[in-house]
Amino acid sequence: MRTILTLAVMLAAGPVLAAPIPIFDHPDALLEAVYDQVEASQDWETFDFDAAFNEEEAFSARLSALLDAANERLYAEGDEMGALDFSPFINGQDSGGMAFTPHPAKIKGDVAVSSVDVTLTGEPLYTIGFNLVHDGEAGWKVDDIVLPWGEAGETVRLSEILSDSSMY
């Protein structure tokens, strides 16, 4: 548990400990980089936290603004954790035993959709959906994440979670 919390704190620390996220010219490259980093972080002995980027830097300007607003509301109420106490890229706090299979993005102009299948110890767990946008000079970014939620087959968008304070 302490190991999980250490990783969460180090990844949440953001720019102080993290390298800047690269600029991606294709949505597939962005998702591959995020999931390569998630998988690499499972090996504590060799993972270079200083070279890792903060996964929230993969968010578009719109999604980042929603996260910032949600965090401001919570910090004002005395909450020290913020709106995201989990990684939306894995829909959890601990990626141990998970493997990820990103699917090629379907692109139309400056928007794209993609998904990533998540398995746990080789068994299908769920699929996470992504809406991506080409965010100008920042390159491709994640504009929303569709997460499994509640009963089998139900989903919720990360933007909904961040916009509705009753959900966090």
How would you sum up this structure, described in words?
With 168 residues, the protein is α+β, with helices and mostly antiparallel strands. The protein is built from four helices and six strands; from the N terminus they run αααββββββα. The protein has helices at residues 2-12, 27-40, 61-76, 158-163; strands spanning 98-102, 106-108, 111-120, 123-134, 140-148, 155-157. Strands 1, 2, 3, 4, 5 and 6 form a six-stranded antiparallel sheet that branches. A hairpin with a 5-residue loop joins strand 4 (123-134) and strand 5 (140-148). The chain is globular, with a radius of gyration of 15 Å.
Poorly predicted residue ranges? 1-15
Major sheet description: 6 strands, antiparallel
Straight-line N-to-C gap? 22 Å
Give the oligomeric state of the chains in this entry, treating copies of one chain as homo and distinct chains as hetero.
single chain
Strand content: 25-35%
Mean pLDDT over the residues: 89
Structural class: alpha+beta
Which sequence of SSEs, written as H and E, runs from N to C?
A: HHHEEEEEEH
SS field, number of helical segments: 4
C-alpha Rg (nearest Å): 15 Å
Anisotropy-based shape: globular
Helix amount, in percent?
A: 25-40%
Total strand segments: 6
Topology at a glance:
Layout: H1 2-12, H2 27-40, H3 61-76, E1 98-102, E2 106-108, E3 111-120, E4 123-134, E5 140-148, E6 155-157, H4 158-163
Antiparallel strand pairs: 1-3, 2-3, 3-4, 4-5, 5-6
